[in-house]
Each structure stands twice: as C-alpha cells, then as structure tokens.
Amino acid sequence: MEHPFSYELIRTATGSAARRGRITTRRGVIETPIFMPVGTLGTVKGVLPETLKDLGAQIILGNTYHLFLRPGHERIQRLGGLHTFMNWDRPILTDSGGFQVFSLGQLNKITEEGVTFQSHIDGSRQHLTPELSIKVQQTLGADIIMAFDECIPYPSDRTYVDASTALSGRWARRCKEAHDRSDGSALFGIVQGGMHPDLRKRSADELLEIGFDGYALGGLSVGEEAELMYEMMEVGLPLLPQDRPRYVMGVGTPENLVEGVARGCDMFDCVMPTRNARNGVMFTHFGKISIKQKQYEDDPEPIDPACDCYVCQHYSRAYLRHLYKNNEILASVLNTQHNLHYYLGLMSRMRKAIEEDRFDAFRTEFYRQRQS
Length: 372
Fold this sequence. Notes:
Layout: E1 6-12, E2 19-25, E3 28-32, E4 34-36, H1 49-55, E5 60-63, H2 64-69, H3 73-78, H4 82-86, E6 92-95, H5 98-103, E7 106-110, E8 115-118, E9 125-128, H6 130-140, E10 144-146, H7 158-178, E11 186-191, H8 197-210, E12 214-217, H9 226-236, E13 246-248, H10 254-262, E14 267-269, H11 272-278, E15 281-284, E16 287-290, H12 310-314, H13 317-325, H14 329-355, H15 359-371
Parallel strand pairs: 4-14, 5-6, 6-10, 10-11, 11-12, 12-13, 13-14
Antiparallel strand pairs: 1-2, 2-3, 7-8, 8-9, 15-16
C-alpha cells in the first residue's frame, strides 16, 4: 500500500522564498503555510475542538513528554488513541518530548542511550530514549511524529553544540529504524546546530542521508535575538528538500511567522497566542494590546476593529477587561478564541497572497498597519 503522507508544492512567490503547498496525511489535507495550535495535554486550553475547526485549525500539536507522564500513552491507546480521547478527527503532530525533558524535568543524565530525568509532576525517575519516544508517539496515534533530539540552549559554547548535534544525528538514525510506517504516520527529522551555520549544514546533510518525510529546524526561539533566528532560517531552510514540508519549531510572534514564510517555512507552532490570551495580551492587525490596562475600562470598541471573529463581533474591550480583572474563566476562553482566529487568519491571508503572487505587497502592508 502506498504511504498516505505526501507534500505538493503548489506555488513559490516572486521576490521571496515563500511557498504555497499541500500536505496530505491519513487524516486529511493541510494547506500550507500553516500555524498549529498547541494542545499540550490533549487540549488546546480554553477552546472546544468544534471551535478550533470553525477558527480554521487544520492540525494541532500534542506533547509526548506530558502525555507520557500523565495520563500515559498506553491508557490513551486503551481509550481509543489521542484523536478519540480528545474528540479531534483532523491531523495531530506530536513533538518528541526532547524539549520538555530539557526545560521542565530536573535533568539527571544524557547518555548515548537516552535521557534520564525526574518528572516535574511527582519527582519520579524516568528514562526516555529515541526508540521509546517513537513508540509513545505511535501509541498515541499521531499523524506526524518528530525524531527525538536534544534541544540546545542559547547561548552554548561551540564544543557543546558540536557534540550535541552529533548525538541528535545518531538518535535520528535510531528513530528512523524504530519508526513503523505501516500505521501511516510520517516521521520528521530535526536539524540542530545551534547558531553555527556549518553545524546546521552538517546536521541537515546527515538527516537528508537518513531520509525523512519532512524536516524541521529545532533550537530556535530559545532566547536569541529575532535577527539571529532569521539568519539561521536563511541558513537552514534552503538546505532542506523542495519536495518535503519544512517546519520551524516553537515559533512565534506574528512577525516571526511572516518572516519565516518569506524564508520558505511551511509549518509553525507556538504557545504564544494561547498563553498570551490567558495573560490578557491580544494580537491585532495593529500590534499587541494588553486588555488589563485601565485605558480600556470604558472602551466600547472591539479588540480589533479589523477583525471579524466572534469575539470582536460581540464583545467590547471594556467587557473583556472586566472579565480579566475578575479572573473569570470566560476571559481566557474569549481571549484565546480571538488570538487563534488572528493567527490562523494571518496564515490564511499569507496563503492567498502567495497564490495570487503578491506576497511581497502583503508583507509590506502587514508592517505598515503595525506602524499606523
């Protein structure tokens, strides 16, 4: 049987590397470039799956580390797999757990075999290997799964980056060997190399030799300046094949998305729209606003006068500020709905601009609005 995963490049923009593409998975088609809302624990916080669909979410993210620790991948499998468990019938991408091991768990030891760490939940000692990461992701039933790698902190000295990148390469090979393609899932490799162009190239070359269904740039948006991140995108994205999806992990702001698309990225994920929403920060065509500010307490205007989302059609800044100041659950629900609508709408507008070969004009107008 032919593997159900494929990527089609539909159009490349004039004047930039922006790409309009289409990913086909076993659970549906994803029009790219796309933003993937983050559903860490089998839920995009504060949003019903039906609402996510209405907002235009084509694929969401699940988190291997969190689901492995609680409620456990085998329990989720017994309950019908992650899609059934969370009532989401569109594609799911799971990260490998590597980033959370290094950022959340009290790290005990990295060896050739894998990583030993303490759970951030109960302090229990856990061990995660490339093989187990792949097994957990396939047990969950994800449509796109990620190779297990070490996320390199920034800044790091070159000797460390060199050794870590080499280790991630060896782990990538083991992930490929452990992956059972018969379930229709796709496996993506992750380019590391820190902020060193030559190490990025070495990592990409190694992953291409192994061969993956798609490729990601990892180790970005880890504290470096935006210009350095863009520089690494310019180095890394052209190293990846034209006929495979390209994913920049953990990115980012609306500006990051526009600049990532301009450099040839197809897929993004970030907690920013959802986490900021819960903290009262809203994204608009004109930039960010903090709804908690006193200036909005009598403001009858919608969050974003240029937005046609449900929240902007029905609620004022004054009401949303009132909800937020009183710690009402509805504040998180409505704020999140607006922010995801903005992010997913931004991607939709970029897809249309590339189709109509006016991406450069779109990019110029995007920044002009933010300065007005």
